[in-house]
Write a structure and sequence with these properties.
The chain has about 300 residues and is of the alpha+beta class. It contains 9 helices and 16 strands. The strands form 3 sheets. Strands 2-3-4-1-5-12-6 form a 7-stranded mixed beta sheet. Strand 8 (about 135-140), helix 4 and strand 9 (about 155-160) form a beta-alpha-beta unit. The longest helix is centred in the last third of the chain and has 20 residues, at about 210-230. The protein binds adenosine monophosphate (AMP). Adenosine monophosphate binds near residues 90, 112, 178 and 180. Adenosine monophosphate (AMP) binds near residues 110, 112, 178, 179 and 185.
Length: about 300
């Protein structure tokens, strides 16, 4: 009598790994965010091929990255539903959308804040001073509603898609919840900032679980952007110094891991130093190095920094 075959305990073979395909990255299609995103990509070694003006698509890295120009507000949803693999957009629109995405990196441009603002002299100086039933114009209805819920104020949200700052003058709102950066548009419209609801800046976002066929390219993009951000505001300082000045140089130029000190062939009294310095410290550092006998001082920009 033949025995029935025993069920195999081995795990079923893994499906073949999906072939890599271009990483789809969405960036805003207009305004400062768009320009700054293109510039950051260029600095990270990912220049867009051809002109990016008025385009929907651009290719980069010989087709390994495909850049799509989309409305900043649409990017979180497109990332969440997998239409694109990653995106660059404001934290404000990510929070408003409620999209389930991973916030991977603060790109440190497009800084602004979502604020509650009220007409000058309105007496609204805090959330608690907003009268019951007040009309709040905003293009961020979800964030505004949750802010007032948190502060236990019953208000009427008036959704608008732009020109929010004029709504109190037009008589359709008592206060607004809007983005500001310099504050000049609020001031021009006789509005005073009452409270910050959310500080924002452009972020790199991606799916919480990236698709395997683009996971490696996404890591490469993340790493490249991170190294550009790390170099921001840093300069590389090189100088030939008298060897005896080294202890003092080391005391005021700690660098990332202390200055690199190199012997100079045929000049035993001299050493070459190389150090990463904060832009804000360059002015004084160069002066001190000169006073200590430094010569051949060079200050060089840094494109990317990998610790
Ligand atoms: P402001 O510099 O405060 O006068 O802002 C100018 C206009 O740009 C206002 O209408 C703001 O709502 C808008 N704004 C400022 N910063 C941003 C940003 N990072 N993203 C989108 N809109 C912004």
């Amino acid at each position: 009598m033949s025995r029935a075959p025993r069920p195999s305990r081995r795990a079923p073979p893994a499906p073949p790994a999906a072939a890599p395909r271009p990483l789809r990255l969405a960036i805003p299609n207009k305004g400062r965010l768009s320009e700054d995103a293109v510039e950051l990509l260029r600095r990270a070694g990912i220049p867009l091929e051809g002109s990016s003006e008025r385009k929907l698509f651009a290719s980069a890295m010989g087709g390994r990255v495909q850049v799509l120009f989309l409305r900043a507000q649409d990017i979180p949803e497109f990332v969440a539903d997998g239409t694109v693999d990653a995106g660059m957009t404001g934290l404000d629109v990510v929070a408003e959308s409620g999209a389930q995405v991973a916030k991977r990196l603060d790109l440190r441009f497009g800084r602004c804040r979502l604020v509650l603002a009220a007409p000058d002299g309105s007496g609204i100086t805090s959330a608690a001073a907003v009268p019951e039933g007040a009309r709040i114009a905003t293009s961020f209805p979800n964030l505004a509603a949750s802010y007032f819920r948190k502060h236990r104020r019953k208000v009427r949200i008036v959704p608008v898609s732009g020109a929010c700052e004029v709504t109190p003058t037009l008589g359709v709102a008592d206060a607004i919840v809007d983005l500001t950066s310099s504050g000049s548009t609020l001031a021009m419209n006789h509005l005073a900032e009452v409270a910050t609801i959310l500080p924002s800046s452009c972020h790199l976002i991606a799916a919480r679980r990236p698709k395997s066929e683009v996971a490696e390219e996404l890591e490469r993009l993340h790493f490249a952007l991170e190294s550009v951000l790390a170099a921001h505001g840093k300069r590389y300082l090189l100088a030939d110094m008298p060897r005896k000045a080294l202890p003092e140089v080391q005391s005021f130029l700690p660098g990332v891991a202390g200055p690199t000190v190199v012997d100079i062939a045929g000049k035993p009294d001299l050493v070459a130093i190389q150090v990463v310095v904060d832009e804000s410290e360059i002015y004084d550092a160069v002066h001190r190095l000169r006073k200590l006998g430094g010569r051949g001082i060079l200050v060089v920009p840094i494109d990317r920094m990998v610790a």
